[in-house]
Amino acid sequence: MPHIVVEYSANLEDHIDVGALLTSVHDAAGSHASVPLAGLRTRALKREQYVVANGDPRNIFVAVVARLNGDRGREPLIEIRDLLMAACSETLSSVQEQQPLALSVEIQTIDAAMRINDNSIRDHYEELR
To answer: Using CA atoms, how far apart are residues 67 and 44, in angstroms rounded to an integer?
Structure first.
């Protein structure tokens, strides 16, 4: 049940299609063998009010937080983190060349004993079974 949240400053939309960033991040996570596509959820949170660094309104931020079951072990989580960073860096490279941009990617582990899943997605898509 990987959950990925892409939080971003509203001014990012002046420079790229945020949907393309979400797709890039989603696809990157889904490319890892330990990430089940049927459980992967990627979403964006646009922030209208924010202050970045010196407060210059041109400053942009993107903060990606991925919450995944920690039972995968450290190495797969690091691999997923690196895939997410690579996807963001590629998608945002032109923005970062033109604008001041702060980018972060963080993995947070979920204790499997502290969550309950109920997911019928696999029931509806043969390729996800």
So the answer is: 14
pTM value > 0.85: yes
Q: pLDDT at position 128, please?
A: 80
Residues with Cβ within 8 Å of residue 17, at least 6 apart in sequence? none
Q: What is the pLDDT of residues 64-75, one digit of tens each?
A: 999 999 888 999
User: What CATH number corresponds to the domain at position 53?
Assistant: 3.30.429.10
Residue 80 tokens, joined = 């997923």
Least Cα distance to 32 among 96, 76, 94 occurs for 76
Closest by alpha carbon to 91, among 76, 78, 103, 109?
A: 103
Q: Compute the distance between CA of residue 87 and CA of residue 16 in angstroms, rounded to an integer.
A: 14
- Which domain does 86 fall in, by range? 3-128
Query: What is the distance between the alpha carbons of residues 74 and 89, in angstroms, rounded to a whole number?
Result: 22
The pLDDT tens digits of the residues spanning 74-87 come to: 999 999 999 999 99
Q: Which two tokens stand for residue 27?
A: 């696809």
**Structurally, how many domains does the chain consist of?**
1
Average pLDDT over residues 86-112: 97
